[in-house]
Task: structure prediction
Amino acid sequence: MNRKTNANMKQSEINFKIQLDDNSIPEQISWSATDNPNEGIEETKAILVATWDPYHKGTLALPLWTKDMEVLDMKRFFIEIMGTVGDAALQATGDSEFALEVEQVCKKLSQNLKKEITAASKGQ
Result:
């Protein structure tokens, strides 16, 4: 494979800043990106960064969340990530059966979460 390096190629950068407490638990997470349409630093409650290691054929995942993130929001975050994975897999592989299975799991989890949210609101 012949790879050319082009000095004029567009580059994009994403940066994360994690503020930790004394026990190394994230208290605040912020991020910035060169292509962020909002421009500037954004605060968030959770991130999930994953990379593929082609040599060991495995994924390195870095899930982080702040200690004040609510559990129901965290569950929604994970469901939405799974949905994004299904969409990305369809786009990358064309495997509509795989994407449909991921979507079905997300729908089931969303239904369960909706019930939890309803129960939690009645309990207040």
About this structure: The chain has a mean pLDDT of 92.
